[in-house]
Amino acid sequence: MRKIVIGEQRIKDYVAKKTNEEDFGTCASIGLVDKNDNILAGVVYNMWSGHAICMHIGAEEGSNWFSRRFATACFNATFGYFNCNRATALVRKSNIKAQRFVIKLGFIEEGVVRQACSDGEDLIMFGMLARECRFLKLNKEEKKKCIKSYKPENNYDLRMGHDAPRESI
Q: Is the pTM of this model over 0.70?
């Protein structure tokens, strides 16, 4: 049986390794583990502005990890828990598989961030608005109204280094 875990450091370390990221800075995480507690996939959230957040995804190739349940948990965190209207995914220009994956999730290519990696490689910027997310548990009317209002108290979790509650879903 697979389990979703929230706020564990090992998920952040795993995604950092998978995405060649040295340091996410202040961040939060959601991971998917198998029955032996091995990590299958993880998402790290950082650069939270109150309205937008950056998502970093790392996964084991060939592990058949993707599920609607995990995607729903991840995007409900993005657009619900963090109260964002926008998610950004930055993907290395050379990582064609990851580019295809985020497009399949529903992200839209928006541009290039030139020489943004430590090795000088460009990043492709993808974005998704809450109303475009097919994984949210919202009806059509709710999706139309889902531009959330910014609340300073929502800033506390990520900016101060606190994660979502540590629990299994």
A: yes
